[in-house]
Amino acid sequence: MTASGWTEDRIDRLKTLWREGKTADQVARDLGHGISRSAVLGKVNRLGLSNSRSRRSVLAPPAGVKAVKARPIRALDIPSVAPPPPPAAQPGLATLLSVRRFQCRWPMDAPGAPDLSVCGRPVERGAFCGPHAHVAYRPARDPARGLERLARLD
How far is CA 30 from CA 15, 35, 58, 119, 149, in A? Predict the structure, then answer.
């Protein structure tokens, strides 16, 4: 059996530092000599100190900082805009191997075609030219609803 690094003095120091609101990493550095952050957290748990720390002291904003209330999310009035029709089918100006950084990457042929060509016109938004960007990037129908769904509020 190995000797424990936890002496009565270290345990008392741990209790004092923990109640002062120090983090496990700060306590471990203070105690030093082979006591890790994980060892501090384990000892805090075994001593039942994790419940004794006031959550308010950890979560309270610093002095002089006023807490801000969250405002409810309102639905934005975004007019629905019909996207322009896609550009007429025409052979691409570039291939997957010849397309450059600022050229449109909209595929012009059927997927899996051996000589797949891409649009190749100058990029206006993202990776696409203006007409292809209108098709690729559509505004959300109800952005507030999307945010609620992301926050799992529905």
Answer: 12, 9, 20, 63, 45
